[in-house]
Design goal:
There is one protein chain. This protein has 1157 residues and is of the alpha/beta class. Helices cover 73% and strands 7% of the residues. Among the domains are: 133 residues; 120 residues, Helix Hairpins; 103 residues. It is built from 31 helices and 13 strands. Keywords: Coiled coil.
Length: 1157
């Protein structure tokens, strides 16, 4: 699949925006860079592409401008050999349509994508800074395991190892051998606990009856004790109530005696008790206030009558304000007028000095000396121009002299510059071409690299040959030696294993047979020692008897008869013995047969063992024939096979190292030959130029000599060109300076004419010859207008101040005349101040009298208020004193206190009667009083003490009986007469189900992790060759040659990825630096993409600013790899770094750059 065009019609910040990736150029990399500043929409573009392929989700972050119902993305996609115009809308169904708005089956896109989903596409075919860092972490977590890394790089799933570890941890949490803290162990303990609980409560019927009878007996005893205790407590409580009420009766009798003397008092209203204190306070307060008011009114009246106001002074109130204004002006004039007169005199002096400086002393009208502003401006302008014109003349003459001197010096140096000979252009070109070829950076660097590689490979070959010790010889002999292939080794290993197994089995069987036969012979010997006659001995005795009988028949004498008798007796005894021990005899026969059979079996096993050992030795000799003579391989076939495999591996490594060395040697020889041709060409060119050369000169000195020759030639040519250019330039400069001098002289003449003309209209035209004098006059005239204006202003101010003083004196005389007085010869300001003070005193006196009159009226009003309040007070007082028949409030207070005490006694007597009634539990107080009168208090108290001791005994007895009843009840409840056993059984079955579920979960996790690990191993074996080669080349390119590639090393049942550094060292993947791990993961991802594209149609690969932390050299190499990757499928790189665009252009000129925003 390829993205031809992406239309961001209405999506996020984009409206009707389109990115055209163009058609694919055959044989060219399909690499595109989308550049934009931050927030330009690069991430939005990638999300839009994913939404186009897989649909816009139910909720989207890109509806902040365009609502859901208007969101639209379009594209032209190339797949299956055709172009497809597709549009994606925000809908629940039918969101994929064509350019005509007709629905399109989602299966078309799904088939083109190979059935992968959104998340799989994002992880497998995109890469950003975050996923790059996760990939680096995956390298650490996987410990460099090759299978995990290859799968992670191809699928983009960086957390596979973490998932496997989590699954293993989950399985270990369920069950672990000899662990007591796992879930299964806890459930087993819970199961055992339930078993114990069931055993504790599951009781037989007989035991249950005993427990029930015990409970019934203890319950009856407890009930009887409780009833007796309750009866005693009731009796004791009744006595306590009687004893409690007896003191109350005494108090009631005392209060009744006190109440007898107070019963005849009147009962005043309840509010009089709070009213009396207030009336007492009001009486005292009102009397004091009335006395104070009378005294204050009298004093104010006398004070007002004694006040006098100056009404004559108040009659001039309207004129006082005008007088105040005049007085302020008079005072200001009196203070300021002397200063102003002095300042006026100073201005007159300054004017005289200015006129003197202008040589116009005593001029009658200085105003006429002033010049119009245009004239002054014209004169100043000409003065400023004069200095510039003089400077231009001096500069033109100075520059003209400098130019002429320089031109003369260059003409003097011409002969020296033109001397000497240089290289002709053709010769110089041939030398430059030959030198460039000889000093070609790539050729020289390749030679250095190949020489370094040659030495390194030579050392490597020596090391590999040293590992072949004790073998020694020529490498050609080593290559010519016969070697077994892998199939032959496997066959020998199988044969050796089979033979070892056969030998072991025969030895085991021989050992067992020998032991069995030894045991059988021991049993036979035991039977013989016990006197048991075996079949052979019996047959011998029977033969001896028969022989004796034949001998006796032949002779019939006593000797033969005795012999026959003895033989017959022995035979009979043996027969009797055999009959008596028939069972032992049968066993003896079996043992004899077993011994015979065992002996045959031992012989056969010895034959088979010898046969197997012979085959084993033959195989060991056959294997040993492939080993070098000096090699120690052992005598066993497997030992020799292991030695042979080690030898073959070392031999193969040595031969491979020899081939690598030869290959590099050929390359080195070719490079040296090419450098020799370039050297010969350079020497020929230098000889043609007439340079002396040493035939044995090193290449470095030869190139430096050629470079010096070229530099000298270029230097002489550049010097001649520079001299010619300088002469031409200075000739033009001299002509220009002469023209500038003439223009400066003409400008000076024009200035003099304008100067004479502008001064002709001034009063100092006779000073035209001196520009400095004219400048001094203008500077002095600049101060004349200010002096004239200041003198005029001061004169006007002095005149105005004198007028104000005269006017104020007239107004003051008029006002004093109205008051029948005058100024006289005194000070005017003093008279005015006295008049103003008299007026102010009159105002204060009038205001003071008005204030005192207001105060008097207020006091009189307050007096009337107090009189009214006093009348009300006297009426309330008369009401209280009349009620009690007295005339003072103190006596009323005494009566009220007595009434209050009577009321308190009445309330307390009622409370006591109620307490007695309630305490004795009777209906009326009279019943209680009668009851109390009939009892003996001492007897009741004695009975109460006796009952208290009895209650303590009964309480302890009831507590013990209750404890016995409770224990009996607990034992009976523990029997489980209800469904307790059934509940325990239900819990047990639930635990069994949980154990079953956990066991299934454990088996699932274990088999799953084992299957995943096996799948990783299979994936590693399938992809390690091609993908490792691609990743190795990419890693070497990205690291700039710091690492020459990748390799693997076995580690138990897996392989570990290592990086091979430039100096031949190696480093584990999980111990590399963080940046190098990022670069390794990037190399693996790029190789994984190419691996994917090799077996199925490629899809666009998107990288989002993954080179932010890369320097420029690393970025160049990454873009070079992306360019190679873009020949397999479309690659789109998103960035906001402009310099990366320039780097990409320099590395992949065919890259297409698309700019956002």
């Amino acid at each position: 699949m390829r993205l031809r065009r992406l239309d961001l019609t209405r999506y996020g910040k984009f409206t009707d925006h389109s990115i055209d990736f163009g058609a694919l150029s055959k044989g060219q990399p399909d690499l595109h860079i989308i550049y934009g500043l931050n927030e330009a929409g690069k991430s939005t573009t990638f999300d839009a592409f994913l939404d186009l392929l897989f649909g816009i989700g139910a909720t989207s972050n890109y509806n902040f401008i365009h609502p859901y119902n208007s969101m639209q993305i379009g594209a032209r996609l190339e797949f299956d050999g055709a172009e497809h115009e597709l549009v994606r809308l925000k809908r629940r169904t039918g969101s994929l349509v064509d350019s005509n708005g007709q629905p399109v089956n989602e299966g078309m896109l799904s088939a083109a994508l190979g059935g992968i989903g959104r998340d799989a596409y994002r992880t497998m075919f995109s890469l950003d800074d975050h996923s790059l860092k996760e990939g680096g972490q995956a390298i650490i977590q996987s410990k460099g395991e090759l299978g995990e890394l290859l799968f992670s790089a191809s699928s983009g799933l960086a957390g596979l190892n973490r998932s496997l570890v989590m699954a293993a941890d989950d399985a270990a949490a369920i069950h672990r051998k000899r662990s007591s803290s796992t879930k299964l162990a806890e459930l087993k303990r819970a199961l055992e606990t339930l078993k114990n609980e069931r055993n504790a409560i599951d009781t037989f019927a007989a035991g249950y009856s005993v427990l029930a009878a015990t409970l019934s007996q203890t319950s009856a005893s407890y009930d009887a004790a409780s009833a007796e205790l309750a009866e005693a407590k009731l009796r004791h409580t009744y006595m306590q109530r009687i004893l409690t009420t007896l003191p109350l009766t005494s108090e009631l009798d005392r209060l009744a005696a006190e109440f007898t003397g107070l019963g005849e008092l009147p009962r005043p209203p309840a509010d009089w008790f709070s009213l009396l204190p207030q009336l007492s306070r009001d009486e005292t307060r009102l009397q004091a206030l009335l006395e104070t008011a009378e005294r204050s009114i009298l004093q104010l009246s006398d004070e007002i009558d004694g006040m006098v106001v100056d009404e004559q002074a108040l009659s001039i109130a309207s004129a006082i304000e005008t007088l105040e204004i005049g007085r302020a002006r008079y005072r200001a004039a009196a203070d300021d007028l002397p200063k102003r007169k002095i300042a006026l005199a100073e201005q007159e002096g300054m004017l005289s000095r200015l006129l003197f400086d202008l040589d116009q002393a005593g001029h009658e009208n200085p105003q006429r000396l002033l010049l119009p502003a245009p004239s002054v401006s014209a004169i100043r302008d000409l003065m400023e121009k004069r200095s510039g014109i003089e400077a231009e003349i001096a500069s033109a003459e100075r520059e003209l002299k400098r130019a002429r001197d320089g031109l003369n010096r260059l003409r003097e140096d011409a002969a020296e510059i033109d001397g000497g000979t240089g290289l002709d252009p053709d010769t110089q070109s041939r030398i430059e071409t030959a030198l460039a070829r000889l000093t070609d950076t790539e050729l020289v660097s390749r030679l250095a690299i190949e020489e370094r590689s040659y030495h390194q490979l030579h050392r490597n070959l020596d090391e590999r040959v040293a590992l072949l010790a004790p073998w020694s010889g020529d490498l050609d002999e080593l290559a010519a030696m016969k070697a077994a292939d892998a199939r032959q080794l496997d066959m020998w290993r199988s044969q050796a294993t089979s033979l070892d197994r056969r030998v072991s089995e025969h030895r085991d069987k021989l050992r067992d047979l020998t032991s069995e036969r030894a045991a059988t012979l021991a049993r036979i010997a035991a039977f013989a020692s016990e006197g048991t006659v075996d079949d052979g001995a019996a047959q011998t005795l029977r033969g001896a008897r028969d022989a004796a009988w034949q001998s006796h028949l032949a002779t019939l004498d006593s000797t033969t008869a005795s012999t026959f008798e003895r033989a017959m007796r022995q035979d009979d005894a043996a027969t009797d013995n055999r009959l008596a021990r028939a069972k032992d005899l049968a066993e003896l026969r079996q043992l004899t047969l077993a011994a015979t059979t065992g002996a045959a079996a031992i012989d056969r096993q010895e034959e088979l063992l010898a046969e197997a050992l012979g085959e084993h030795h033959t195989l060991a000799d056959k294997i040993g024939a492939y080993l070098p003579d000096a090699t120690e391989g052992g005598s066993e076939a497997l030992e020799r096979l292991a030695a042979l495999e080690s030898w073959i591996g070392k031999r193969s490594t040595a031969l491979s190292a020899r081939d690598d060395l030869k290959k590099v040697g050929y390359e080195l020889e070719a490079l040296r030959s090419e450098l020799g041709r370039h050297r010969a060409a350079l020497e020929a060119a230098l000889a043609e130029a007439g340079a002396w050369l040493d035939g044995e000169m090193p290449i470095g000195e030869l190139t430096r000599a050629a470079a010096r020759l070229l530099a000298d030639s270029r230097s002489r040519e550049e010097a001649r060109a520079s001299h010619r250019k300088a002469v031409t330039g200075l000739t033009r400069d001299v002509a220009e300076r002469e023209r500038e001098q003439q223009q400066a002289v003409l400008a000076a003449e024009g200035w003099r004419d304008a100067w004479s003309e502008v001064l002709s209209g001034t009063w100092f035209a006779d000073r035209a010859t001196s520009v400095a004098a004219v400048g001094a006059i203008l500077a002095t005239l600049a101060g004349l207008p200010g002096v004239l204006k200041e003198r005029q202003d001061l004169a006007q101010r002095v005149s105005a101040m004198e007028h104000d003083q005269r006017q104020f004196r007239a107004e003051l005389s008029n006002m004093l005349g109205q008051l029948a007085t005058d100024i006289g010869s005194g000070d005017v300001l003093a008279a005015a101040n006295a008049l103003v003070e008299r007026y102010n005193n009159a105002l204060r006196d009038r205001q003071h009298r008005a204030d005192r009159q207001t105060t008097l009226e207020t006091l009189q009003a307050d007096r009337h208020t107090l009189d009214a309040e006093l009348a009300i007070h006297n009426a309330r007082k008369a009401e209280l004193t009349g009620y009690f028949g007295t005339d003072t409030l103190a006596a009323v207070g005494t009566y009220l206190d007595a009434a209050k005490e009577r009321d308190r006694i009445e309330r307390r007597m009622a409370e006591l009667r109620e307490q007695i009634t309630q305490g004795l539990r009777v209906k009326t107080y009279e019943d209680g009083a009668r009851l109390l009168s009939e009892i003996d208090a001492a007897e009741v108290e004695h009975s109460a003490l006796s009952l208290a001791a009895r209650i303590e005994d009964l309480t302890e007895r009831a507590r013990e009986l209750y404890a016995d009843m409770t224990r009996a009840q607990d034992k009976l409840d523990a029997v489980g007469g209800d469904d307790a056993v059934a509940r325990i059984e239900a819990k047990r079955r639930t635990l069994l189900l949980e154990i079953e579920a956990l066991a299934i979960r454990y088996l699932t996790l274990r088999t799953g992790t084992m299957a995943a690990e096996q799948a990783l191993h299979l994936y590693r074996d399938k992809h390690r060759s091609s993908m490792m080669n691609r990743a190795s080349q990419a890693f070497q390119t990205i690291t700039g040659g710091n690492y020459t590639g990748l390799a693997t090393q076995p580690d138990k049942d897996k392989e570990i990825l290592i990086g091979v550094s430039r100096d031949g060292g190696s480093k584990l993947a999980d111990s590399m630096s963080t940046g190098t791990q990022f670069q390794l993961y990037l190399a693996l991802r790029l190789a994984g993409y190419e691996e994917f594209a090799a077996v199925r149609p490629a899809v666009p690969f998107v990288a989002d600013d993954i080179m932010e932390s890369f320097d420029n050299p690393r970025s160049e190499e990454v873009f070079r790899l992306l360019g190679e990757m873009a020949k397999v499928g479309q690659v789109i790189y998103l960035t906001h770094h402009l310099h990366l665009c320039d780097i990409a252009k320099s590395v992949v000129p065919q890259v297409k750059i698309h700019q956002l925003g």
